């Protein structure tokens, strides 16, 4: 079991399931409604906890009613939030429409601009020597940059992964400080690449010492490892697509788990694709360990 610190965002997810995605101006009845803890970083920790690791989340939490509910849900998952600053404000909320016939989901996210994200001063209060792995969401620049730079200076051997999901100003400045980079299809397409191999070849010239991972939905995942080897792992085909929400976060957790267990490069991708595909066969992220 490893001690893992995740730094990023968490949200309250409000999920309405519908038989099929409605057309504009339609009025439809939801089949079900659920409230769950969410957010990329927390989702990844939720899966890592099930894989046997001790997980600590760091991010700002609001003190409103939704924030209290969210804290209760996270603690139920046995994820430590003791280092999170509790701030007056409104809890970030994702309103999600999940289509039963395809398993696809549409997300409308709300974040109160008055709710600050985690600062370097908050992060600097935690003793990093207790952790075996750090995972960051690539957001909240330049505070995240300060956190990662400090980690590299004071704890140079502590493995660090960064998720690059959305294009953000100067986010490329983080790349060289990671051991593992997870790139979303959205980010790569935004840069004008239609296929991840060309993107990975370009990055290999700039940052050859880093594992670069590109989950690619139904096509599986592509990667170029620090030794220059290129791999493609086909996706695990779910028996039935029930819920794709959090599949990418699950993939990241599977890959981190595989690294911590010193799996071979191809086996890391295989395990991550398998657990992400299995996740799509069920609603939510709980009880995943029973189906892998």
Task: Describe the protein.
The protein has 292 residues and is of the alpha/beta class. The protein has one domain (3-20, 31-290): UDP-N-acetylmuramoyl-L-alanine:D-glutamate ligase, CATH 3.40.1190. It contains eight helices and 14 strands. It has helices at 40-50, 65-76, 120-123, 143-154, 185-190, 196-206, 247-260, 265-279, and strands at 3-7, 11-18, 32-38, 54-58, 61-62, 86-87, 93-99, 105-110, 133-137, 160-164, 180-183, 211-215, 221-224, 230-233. It starts with a strand and ends in a 13-residue tail after the last helix.
Mean pLDDT: 93
Give the helix level as a range of percent. 25-40%
Strand order of the largest sheet: 4-1-9-10-11-12-13-14
- What is the CA-based Rg, rounded? 18 Å
Structural class: alpha/beta
Number of strands: 14
CATH architecture: 3-Layer(aba) Sandwich
Number of domains: 1
CATH topology: UDP-N-acetylmuramoyl-L-alanine:D-glutamate ligase
Strand content bin = 15-25%
Poorly predicted regions: none
Please describe the biggest sheet, giving its number of strands, its sense, and whether it closes into a barrel.
8 strands, mixed
CATH class descriptor name: Alpha Beta
Report a brief summary of the structure.
This protein is of the alpha/beta class and 292 residues long. It is 29% helix and 24% strand.
Question: Topology, please?
Answer:
Layout: E1 3-7, E2 11-18, E3 32-38, H1 40-50, E4 54-58, E5 61-62, H2 65-76, E6 86-87, E7 93-99, E8 105-110, H3 120-123, E9 133-137, H4 143-154, E10 160-164, E11 180-183, H5 185-190, H6 196-206, E12 211-215, E13 221-224, E14 230-233, H7 247-260, H8 265-279
Helix pairs in contact: 1-7, 7-8
């Amino acid at each position: 079991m490893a001690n893992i610190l995740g730094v990023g965002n968490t949200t309250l997810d409000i999920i309405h399931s519908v038989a099929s995605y409605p057309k504009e101006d339609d009025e439809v009845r939801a089949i079900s409604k659920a409230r769950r803890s969410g957010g990329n970083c927390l989702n990844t920790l939720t899966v890592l906890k099930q894989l046997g690791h001790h997980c600590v989340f760091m991010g700002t939490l609001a003190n409103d009613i939704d924030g209290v509910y969210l804290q209760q849900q996270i603690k139920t998952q046995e994820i430590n939030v003791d280092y999170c600053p509790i701030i007056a404000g409104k809890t970030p909320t994702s309103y999600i429409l999940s289509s039963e016939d395809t398993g696809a989901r549409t997300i409308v996210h709300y974040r109160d601009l008055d709710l600050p994200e985690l600062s370097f001063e908050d992060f600097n209060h935690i003793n990093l020597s207790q952790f075996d792995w750090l995972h960051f969401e690539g957001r909240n620049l330049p505070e995240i940059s300060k956190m990662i730079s400090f980690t590299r200076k004071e704890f140079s051997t502590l493995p660090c992964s960064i998720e690059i999901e959305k294009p953000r100003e100067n986010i490329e400045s983080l790349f060289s400080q990671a051991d593992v980079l997870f790139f979303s299809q959205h980010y790569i397409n935004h840069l004008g690449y239609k296929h991840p191999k060309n993107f990975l070849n370009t990055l290999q010239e700039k940052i050859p010492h880093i594992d670069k991972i590109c989950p690619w939905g139904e096509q599986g995942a592509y990667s170029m490892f620090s030794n220059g080897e290129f791999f493609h792992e086909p996706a695990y085909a779910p028996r039935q697509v029930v819920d794709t929400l959090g599949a990418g976060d699950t993939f990241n957790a599977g890959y981190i788990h595989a690294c911590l267990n010193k799996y071979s490069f191809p086996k890391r991708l295989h395990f991550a694709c398998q657990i992400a595909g299995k996740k799509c066969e069920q609603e939510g992220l709980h009880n995943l360990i029973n189906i892998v």
